[in-house]
Design goal:
Na+/H+ antiporter like fold; 16 helices
């Protein structure tokens, strides 16, 4: 039995460590998520009685903890982006969503159906769960804190941040399709397909976007333009307001049966558009980032402990092959193809295609789906597959993100310096515009 005093000490140590680790690993080929994942693995080896972590038994807890982490991360991602919306400006993101994501889902589903001999519903569920680029674990390749310039976001960081912000919500219709297929035996397939197209694809996506725009417009007015200073929150610089905006947008949209993930990201982008140069965005973003870091540290620690307790025991070699092919072949290839003809250069296209990080969002979708229907595949095997994919992604992308992104930044600096006619050298906007 674990005492409350031990838990207090453990939580306090974790919070302090989450504050220190990002600075210790800055510039090194290791990420904070990887550190906490390894800490969870190592802690399980200590002679300390830890409770057994079972996402099947405790599915509801897993669903809601990961849900909160994802929506907080989506708010942070949206607040960081300063590029105005437009087809030309967001073209790379549109290609990643419209080409890479469907192709990745299709290829992963075929691999699961072929190699694992799974039913179509289970194969589609795995593909949908592993489709989104995770906004939580993508911090090393994400746009940083808000700035006043709308041109200082290089294409790699912008593409991955905007993709992660939107495809977490756009994966939901595919998850719902897998759920519909799993329960199709009790009703006519035509009715299920029609309901999916009208409700899960049409209505819920539209409600998510419209609710995000409406809430973002309302909060933008409240933050920056309200006539009374007492309610013009930007003058009081309270960061916790970002959490209020996150939960308000998410809860309101879910009550209307829309996709809350879409609404939160759109809300954040709309708040940013209300007054792009205001310093209050930095206050909101920094607070959200701190909460996100705490939640990420806790969840990755628990995931590491779960792995140490035998989470991967049900994993077969075929399942491992599916996950490795997704990370090393399917995502890089589809990501590269989608970007042909877009603004980024070949190096930038390769990096954007490679860093399709899988993480907390996949854990949420799996927990959510397993609470609705049975998929004729043991839940433990599904958890093993998804956990293995997240483990490999955290290790692979966590160790390569810093050196790869740093190398791109260095090359941009050199290229911009060669073109600059200013004796002081190029500014941040000039560097970000360079194509590699």
């Amino acid at each position: 039995m674990i005492s409350a005093d031990f838990l207090f000490a453990l939580f306090g140590t974790g919070a302090l460590t989450a504050a220190v680790v990002p600075r210790l690993v800055a510039g090194r080929p290791v990420s904070m998520p990887l550190v906490f994942l390894l800490c969870g693995l190592a802690f399980q080896l200590l002679p300390v009685p830890l409770p057994q972590i079972d996402p099947v038994r405790d599915r509801l807890w897993v669903e809601h903890l990961t849900e909160v982490c994802v929506i907080v991360s989506l708010m942070g991602a949206g607040l960081a982006l300063n590029r105005p919306f437009g087809h030309g400006r967001w073209r790379t993101c549109g290609r990643l969503l419209g080409v890479t994501m469907p192709l990745t889902i299709a290829a992963t589903a075929v691999l699961a159906w072929w190699l694992l001999d799974w039913p179509v519903a289970a194969a589609l569920l795995l593909a949908a769960v592993l489709a989104p680029t995770d906004p939580v674990l993508a911090s090393e390749v994400r746009v940083g804190a808000p700035t006043e310039s709308e041109h200082d976001e290089d294409e790699v960081r912008f593409a991955l941040t905007s993709e992660a912000g939107l495809n977490d919500g756009l994966a939901f219709p595919v998850v719902m399709a897998a759920i519909a297929l799993a329960g199709a035996g009790s009703s006519a397939p035509g009715g299920r397909i029609g309901h999916w197209l009208l409700v899960d694809v049409g209505y819920r996506c539209v409600v998510g976007v419209l609710a995000g725009l409406a809430v973002g417009r309302l909060l933008g007015w409240l933050f920056f333009r309200a006539s009374q200073s007492a309610v013009r929150l930007s003058e009081h610089r309270e960061g916790f307001v970002a959490l209020g905006a996150t939960f308000f947008a998410y809860g309101l949209t879910e009550l209307a049966h829309g996709y809350g993930f879409l609404a939160v990201f759109v809300t954040a982008c709309r708040i940013r558009a209300a007054e792009r140069a205001h310093g209050y965005h930095t206050v909101l973003h920094d607070f959200v980032e701190q909460i996100e870091r705490l939640l990420t540290a806790a969840l990755l620690f628990l995931l590491g402990a779960f792995i140490a307790q035998g989470a991967l025991a049900p994993l077969t070699w075929q399942g491992a092959v599916v996950c490795l092919l997704l990370l090393l072949a399917v995502r890089p290839l589809t990501g590269w193809l989608a970007q042909l003809g877009t603004a980024p250069g070949p190096r930038e296209r390769a990096v954007t295609a490679f860093f399709g990080i899988r993480g907390i969002g996949s854990l949420f979708y799996l927990a959510y789906a397993l609470g609705t229907e049975g998929f004729q595949v043991p839940a433990e095997e599904l958890w093993a597959l998804v956990t293995f994919t997240v483990l490999v992604s955290v290790a692979l992308h966590g160790m390569t993100a810093t050196p790869v992104i740093s190398r791109l930044d260095h090359l941009r600096q050199l290229q911009a310096r060669r073109k600059s006619h200013d004796r002081h050298g190029p500014d941040e906007d000039d560097v970000a515009k360079e194509r590699l």
